[in-house]
Write a structure and sequence with these properties.
Elements: E1 6-10, H1 14-27, E2 32-36, H2 39-46, E3 60-63, H3 72-81, E4 90-94, H4 99-107, E5 112-115, H5 120-137
Parallel strand pairs: 1-2, 1-3, 3-4, 4-5
Length: 143
């Protein structure tokens, strides 16, 4: 069942964000897509701190690990430590293929770990997989 989805992308690579947003929008233009470029901004967004006082809580978060300042691991731990935010699924999108990073993310309660694709076809496969499972098959917790 297709559902509305507020999607938050936390990534400092604007090209990556643009590709993801464009592909998601091409598959379903009804998606509400939000972007922040670092971990502190992600927490400001989620806690409705300035300048995000009117931000909607996302239904799904795509989180890069290698962020300036607060790392993706720090953001993941902070979100999963908060009972209000914990139910939001978090997909790690990282350049890292390290088994230590993968293990750490799952230990920190990430819902999925995906290595960032290197080409447009790979990005399209990832976005289609996210759309197919997270937007069409899975049900989100109500905020």
């Amino acid at each position: 069942m297709k559902q509305m989805c507020n999607l938050l992308v936390v990534d400092d690579d604007i090209q990556q964000v643009y590709v993801l947003e464009s592909l998601h929008q091409s598959l379903d233009p009804s998606r509400r897509y939000f972007y922040v470029s670092d971990g502190n901004a992600a927490l400001d967004f989620l806690y409705h701190r300035p300048p995000y006082e009117k931000a909607l809580l996302p239904d799904l978060i795509l989180l890069d690990l290698n962020l300036p300042g607060m790392t993706g691991h720090d953001v993941l731990r902070a979100i999963k430590a908060d009972p209000k935010l914990r139910p939001i699924p978090i997909i790690i999108l990282s350049d890292s293929t390290s088994t230590m990073d993968v293990q750490a993310c799952y230990s920190e309660h990430a819902n999925a770990y995906i290595v960032k694709p290197r080409d447009l076809d790979g990005h399209l496969r990832v976005v289609r997989a996210i759309e197919s499972f997270w937007m069409n098959a899975a049900s989100f917790a109500q905020h």
